[in-house]
C-alpha cells in the first residue's frame, strides 16, 4: 500500500514541468528492484502463512508502540564536579604567563658535526647454523 503511494508520487514528480524534471525516480533501478522485492516477499509470506502458521493477515497494520520500554538506559544529567578548595583566585592568578621570568639561556646551541660511520662488510654465508628438522 505504501509502495503504491510512493510509486504514484514518483510518477507525478517525473511528469512535473520545470527545471530539474529530467529525474524520473519511478524508472530508477532501485525503485524497480524494490517493487519486485516487495512483491515476492509478500507472496512468500502469504504462501507460508497459508500452510504453516494459519493466521489471518489483518487488512490494516496495527499501530505499534514507538517508545521502547526495554533495553534503553535513562540519560544521566551531566554536572560539573565541585571545585577543590586549593583552586582559589590567588592560585589561578599565579598561572599568569605574562609575569614569567625572562629566559636568557634560551640561545640555540650550534649543531655538532656528524661524523660518518663505517659500515661493516657483510657477505652472505652458506652455513648460518640454522637447521630445519
From TrEMBL:
Residues 97-126 have a biased composition (Basic and acidic residues). It comes from the Eukaryota. InterPro entries: BRO1_sf (IPR038499), BROX (IPR038898). Residues 96-133 are annotated as: Disordered. Transmembrane segments: none annotated. This is BROX protein.
